[in-house]
Amino acid sequence: MKVNVEEISAVKRKVDVEIPEDQVRGEIDSFYKDLGKKAKIKGFRPGRVPRGILERYFKDYAKGEVTQKLIQDTYPKAFSEVSLNPVSLPAIEPGELEAGKPFHYSLTIEIKPELKIEGYAELKIEGKKEEVKEEEVEDRLRNLQNLHANLRTISEVRPVQKGDYVLLDYEGRIDGKPLDEGKAIDVAVEVGAGRFIPELEERLPGIGIEEEKEMEVTFPENYGYEKWAGKKISFHVKIKEIKEKILPVLDDEFAKDLGDYASLGELKEKLRDDIAKAKELALEHQLKDQIMDQLLQAHSFEVPPSLVEEQ
Question: Which domains does the chain have, with CATH numbers?
Answer without folding.
Answer: 2-110 (3.30.70.1050), 121-149+247-311 (no CATH), 150-246 (3.10.50.40)
